[in-house]
Amino acid sequence: MTDKFYITTAIDYSNGEPHLGHAFEKIGADCIARYRRLRGQRVYFVIGMDEHGQKVAQVAEEAGVDPQAWVDGIAAKFEQAWQELSISHTDFIRTTEHRHRRTVHELWKRIQDAGEIQPGTYRGLYCVGCEAFKPEKDLVEGKCPEHPTREIKWVEEPNLFFRLGSFSDRLMEFYEKTYGTENAFVRPKSKFNEIRNVVQDWDDEYVLSVSRASVPWGIPWPGDSEHTVYVWAEALINYLSATGFPDDGWDEMWPADLHVIGPDILRFHAAFWPAMLMAANLPLPGGVWCHGWVNISGARFSKSAGVTLSLRDAIDRHGPDALRYFLLREVPWDADGNFAWDRFDARYLSELADGYGNLASRILAMIERYLDGTIPHSSGETELDGVGTEVIHEYRAKMDAHLLHEGATVAWQLVTRANQFVEEQAPWTLQKQGRTEELQVVLGSLAAALARITLLATPFMPNKAQQVWEALGFTSNVENAVWTDLEAPHVAGRNIARLAPLFPKPQQHS
């Protein structure tokens, strides 16, 4: 494992407010970033806003404001949402920033200087919702499957084209180096198969439009003000812009270790982006993780298709940390999953309120009542200590593989076992019978288990974890803990503090 870990998410398009789909991706990437910090890596975590293109210009016009004012307002709403959800990004990049424009110009100039850009005329169908040209074979009953309520328009205009087909063989060779391995360039494997099938069908003459002549809201093409850089062709470059490229020191961050994206932009990140970097003779990213869709009542979450759920309502239901946990526990990180209120309520009660919250409350209360609030020094070990060691080992394997839902499942096995251990050992009986030494061993083991659970839970629910961490007598921020704190939590001798109900039982929801 290297010292540096650079993770990104897709930058969000500025045509509307943040929703649950945006939040799922950011929370998942944040969970990975926090876990990597726990493992001791120096993490760069970049998110941001995609602010150019025809669609943004249209919604700004409809709102009666200029595009820059529109994207400024939208960016503020996204930043507020990510702050509330405790997204620990180190940079929030916007494609209207000067630093991004500089990098875009430099990259496309290098590609053009390498002879990989040619002029031409595009004639074909265009989906404004996708900001992409659409082959007729990709349409469903004449509609874009991603934006079925939008009209597909015929477009004919002069464009600049990237000679994408000339990189097909190099891409396939690059794919084969990691295909089938645990460090595959694209994961999960089904998505790697999908992109390999796409790229192997390109011929040498295959080109891709990278400019628009009729969309003024964008970055001018370097050296040709009559063209703007196609929105996708400059948005991808944000991952490089955040490094300061081409200024000295950019390679301290680059290459990115992991791009976290959704299925609808797989081709852009797993094929177009590495081809662009190849053309500019720059290092390729380490990998692309393609998460699935969050479905609601069995239908894919999509504002365009009318399947929506208020992010505000989801946060307010049980609080931001509970939402973080639920999404990553309920929705597989490597497949589609479903969001349902009854499932949210059920997991909140059983796994958070009656699970982790109840466990923390009981352990701290017994230490206060029986041992004057000081976690005991004890040389004895219990079966619970061994279970904790096994859980940590399995948790690491799941989280290293980015299987976040399975990581949460493993962590909560220790919650379940610790609650069972309380009932089996009955500290109240040990106290009543004067078996002080046994009582100290049992409560010392439970305190260590609670510290371990709290560190395992930190990537999923950082604020609740901090509350428990402080109640255990730690004065540092739980986010500063390292892996050795998890393997051997130093809790003995600490003075515990009272803990308010961690997950209050809610009133009945309709």
Looking at the overall shape, the CATH architecture of the largest domain is 3-Layer(aba) Sandwich
Terminal CA distance:
48 Å
CATH topology of the largest domain: Rossmann fold
Into how many domains do the coordinates divide? 2
User: What is the CA-atom radius of gyration, in angstroms?
Assistant: 26 Å
Please name the fourth-level CATH homologous superfamily of the largest domain: HUPs
Biggest sheet details? 7 strands, parallel
Determine the mean pLDDT.
Answer: 94
Overview of the molecule:
- Helices cover 47% and strands 15% of the residues.
- It is built from 18 helices and 17 strands.
- Strands 1, 2, 3, 4, 8, 13 and 14 form a 7-stranded parallel sheet that branches. Strands 6-5-7-9 form a 4-stranded antiparallel sheet. A 3-stranded antiparallel sheet has the order 10-12-11.
- α11 packs across α12.
- The radius of gyration is 26 Å and the shape is elongated.
- The two termini are 48 Å apart.
Summarize the topology.
Blueprint: E1 4-9, E2 12-13, H1 20-38, E3 42-50, H2 54-63, H3 67-84, E4 91-94, H4 98-113, E5 117-127, E6 132-134, E7 153-162, H5 168-178, E8 186-187, H6 189-199, E9 208-209, E10 211-212, E11 220-221, E12 224-229, H7 231-235, H8 238-241, E13 258-261, H9 266-279, E14 288-290, E15 294-296, E16 299-300, H10 311-318, H11 320-330, E17 337-339, H12 341-371, H13 383-400, H14 404-425, H15 427-432, H16 436-457, H17 462-471, H18 483-487
Parallel strand pairs: 1-3, 1-13, 2-3, 3-4, 8-14, 13-14, 15-17
Antiparallel strand pairs: 5-6, 5-7, 7-9, 10-12, 11-12, 15-16
Helix pairs in contact: 2-3, 6-9, 10-11, 11-12, 11-14, 12-14, 12-16, 13-14, 13-16, 14-16, 16-17
